[in-house]
Amino acid sequence: MSAAQKPDAELAQIAPLTDPPFQDFLPYEVRDVWDRLLPAAIVLCLAAITFAAFRGRVFAPLWEASRTHGWMLALLRPSLIWISMGSVLLIFRTTLWFFYRPFAPATRQDAPFMTVIIPAYNEGPMVAQAIDAVAAADYPRERLEIFVVDDGSRDDTWEHIERAARRHPQLVTPVRFPANRGKRAALAEGFRRARGEVVVSIDSDSVIERSALLAIAGPFRNANIGAVAGKVAVYNRLEGLIPRMLHVRFILSFDMLRAVQSTYGTVYCCPGALSAYRLSVVRQVVDSWETQTFLGTPSTYGEDRALTNFILDLGYDTVYQSKAVVHTLVPETYVKLCKMYLRWDRSYIREEIRFARIVWKRPLKSMLIAWLDSTITNLRYPVGYTVLTLFVTLALSDVTVLLRMLLAVGLMATFYMLYYLRSERSLDAVYGVLYAYFSFFTLFWIFPYALLTVRARSWLTR
Known about the structure:
Layout: H1 8-11, H2 28-55, H3 60-66, H4 70-99, E1 114-120, H5 126-135, E2 144-150, H6 157-167, E3 172-176, H7 183-193, E4 198-202, E5 206-208, H8 212-217, E6 225-234, H9 241-262, E7 274-278, H10 279-290, E8 293-294, E9 297-298, H11 303-313, E10 317-328, H12 334-358, H13 364-378, H14 380-395, H15 399-423, H16 429-442, H17 446-452
Helix pairs in contact: 2-4, 2-15, 3-4, 4-9, 4-13, 4-14, 5-6, 7-10, 9-15, 9-16, 10-11, 11-12, 12-17, 14-15, 15-16
């Protein structure tokens, strides 16, 4: 039974908050030293990685083999050039990351009128948790409205929505589609009904923290900001190894990557779990976004990345607010995890193609950074699979090559855990290293398959 199908009493036992971070048990003097040591350790590791990339020592076995196999040399040289560029990009990202600061939250006095939209499909009792969390948020009730859109559910989702609406009269408005029309249609219905200056979308399997709404409203003081990405953590992280690993991955994805993107106003994807939009901006693109097609087929999944692209295309900034936190359910099994990643990678491919045209419309500084970041990042796929193929080819005749490769994976994963520890300081960092090996052995096929099936429309979980 998935977390979304568990009864209310059992669901309430799933703790959305993280375990107490280990530094809470340390004296303040030790914590201060820790805060100074982590950035220093990151800088030293960056220097070591850059030295290794330019010297090519890690790839010594490939260099030796390429002396007798010309095809290896032809593949290795451009790969090493990219790896060197990737090292420089990592240094640049880290510099921007150090400069990121969360936005000041809105106050109860200056909070804008806000509309919250929660689309739901076959979510069961979890939708009630999502609604109750929004209703209990620290936000002036007279400036808040909540639309919960049941997208033609075939289970008891509508009953939970109706009960929640009765618990929060004059705050929650339930909307029901007679048949399933898709998440875009559910969100579009909310966008068209919304009266708020700011509209927030929250997934029905997600629970926001009490301060999230005021926090996510804060950045809109800047008139050039069109969308704000919240911080996504894992709600059911205690329910198995996969959720624990995903929690670490999510923290890195948001507190590192989106924080970096926010410094130049170009967060590439404001997530469906928690994002906020300026309603006047969304209204300009909602029709085109709802009816978007790709290679002649309607676009279904990836609605969050697509809407972010539409907003960037209008010339508005998209930023990240680390103080706006939501806890979302994630897959607990390998099969469901693969389905989630397939959706994400297919939409990534589609929207990266669109972003390649949009990026040139950004302000000069944002355009240059975003173009370089996107270009070097996207090259990781051909380079990564090329290097993997070369190492595996050599490992067939020399097993020590494979051992070196696995050691390199572990060392890089351990390095990235320094970023995680600066954000969360939890002993769960060990799950980040486990995830590196897990993805290396079991998820490598996802992107190539997504590329071959990019026109597929199925949500895979419906």
